Amino acid sequence: MTPHKISRLLTPLQGVRGSAAALLALLCAVFAAPPAFADPDNFGNGNGHNGALTVTTANRVINTYTRLTANANAGATTVSVNSITGFAVGDLIMVFQSTGYTGTVVTGAQAPFDAAATPVGNWNFARVTARAGTTLTFAPALTSNFTGSPPDNDITLRSSAQVIRVPEYTDVTINAGASLSARAWSSDAEFRDTVGGLVVFFATGTVTNNGTISAAGAGFRGGEKFNGSGDSCTQLDEEWEGGAMTVSY
Question: Does the keyword Signal belong to this entry (predicted)?
Answer without folding.
Answer: yes
